[in-house]
Fold each of these.
Amino acid sequence: MSTEATADRLVAGEWSGGAHPYRIGHRKLGMWLFIVSDTLTFSALLIGYSYVRASADQWPTPFPFYPSIVFSSVMTLCLLSSSLTMVMGVSASARGDLKAVRKWILLTILFGIAFLVLHLIEWKHLIDEGLSPFAVPAEWLHKWPQASPLFGATFFAITGLHMFHVFTGAVYLAVVAARVKKLKHEDVEISGLYWHFVDLVWMFVFPMIYLLSVDFTP
Amino acid sequence: METHAESEHEHFAGSNKLFISVWFWLLLMTGIEVFLGYIHLDVRLMLTILMGLSIIKAALIVAYFMHLRFERLSLVLTLVPMLVICICLLLVFFPDSFRSKDMRYKFNPPPAAEPSH
């Protein structure tokens, strides 16, 4: 048999059923495809935000060092650390050490909840100042007279959708931790994929929403 | 059904030391980003640097935490190029944002500097 024919046979074998061509299970492939589509959702939102900001006459840059930047930096630290604990949980799961898996996942959830609490406090600061999805606080209009009212809409939409992802991620991980004995290693890995994705999205939201809107006015 | 306890020797490449060093680099780059937020730079330059750093961070997370570096190349080639192309396609609309700024009706037009007769 020529080498070409052998190659044909191998490829057909790989893709003709009964095998995992990507060497991952169908559930993990499903999660990857979900992550791809969710990436496009967040990309569209962030690009929409950039579009609105670039076309606005004036865009408020209202975030002071304290509380906004300090809070959001600590939140970033929480999410990054939760990713580390999650990856530790997945490697414990590969070893079959289920007790350690539970411990690491619970730690991950705790970091996730810390993120949510800090973010909600940060939202409350802004809402108390008078920020809403359709209007900026009157005080801001003194500093930025032509401030686009779309600031609140983009801010709450993007951070709100991300917060929802963190919340569902925490619930998902709690279910995984509770049922870890019945689950396969790959299922733990899949929940890890989702959690890391939520972390990854924040790596773009944090600089684009917060660091590009630092308040320099005296 | 095969449960978790039975499959004890799963393969999960990467040592804890590797993951901790990835975490350290991610923190370092976040620190640099926060620092950059407090230097007065042109917003476009700033955006470029921040996005560059964020893409490096995203790549580290995907490669090591999400384990894509240790998966088959066919999976990487299925997921990554189409995502990059789709995001670039979203950016097609972007140049219009600069144009719409000038097209908008102005409520308070600046006083025209016309020579008086």
Note: Helices of chain B lie at 16-36, 43-65, 73-90, 96-103.
Amino acid sequence: MLDLRLLRLVLPSESASKIMRQVMPWALPGFGIMFVTGGLLFFSQAEKAYTSGFFRVKMLLLVLLGVNALVYQLKFYPSMAEWESSETVPRGVQVIAVVSLAFWMVVIACGRLMAYEL
Amino acid sequence: MSLQHLWQMSYDSHTIDILRNSKYAIPVIQSFHLFGITLLLGSMVILNLRLSGIGLRQLPMAALSRQIWPWAIGGLLLAIASGVLVFVPDPARYAANYAFRTKMVALCVAVAFQFLIYRKVMRSGTAESGSSRNIAVAGCSLVLWFLVGWAGRAIAFLG
């Protein structure tokens, strides 16, 4: 939803930084829970998971998603007050939002496909 | 015609053979099922956090509901469409599965709750405050949708 807001596809009437401040305290614990439960599932069948191509792609994309978010935090977050009042979203922000949406979808698909022998 | 006949017809259909015989069809459709679920549950968590007054208090409920609702419906439709495609190649097995049955009942209740009670609260103009009624409505909605998700996950583990 945050990415969709950055692309102005949802709630354009509310400022992106406000939505971010309101949603992140819920999104981060959500990620924490998934990280811990995902870790437990991994250790229950570490070898099978580690050798799965889908698992490797999923982990790689999670790292890249972290880098993507870090770039946003360093490069665009500090200046949000300046650019978010205008109708046009900076090119870099658009790219980061699209990459984030696309990568998260592939992460979901890889997680699902891991269970199959493909 | 009984449901059993319908399942058998579906099982025998040659069009559906394509789904059954392809190694990739069901896993790919399952992935789309998850995209739909992500969109739907994400939307529901956002709306219900705000409705209960527990979170997102600085965002106006009316605008949030108006803007998020179409994404929730889109997610629901994607999940239903992909869910049907996963169901039709092997309908009798799913229909006999208790987790699947629980999921279908919970899904019907959740959809009815969302369209009748939740929307009534939205229209009443009393959704902005985290009153005890709003907390109860948000809680019911979340429990119902997570029950659908949990029962869905359980299909693979329970008979």
Note: The CA atoms of residues 24 and 30 of chain B lie 10 Å apart.
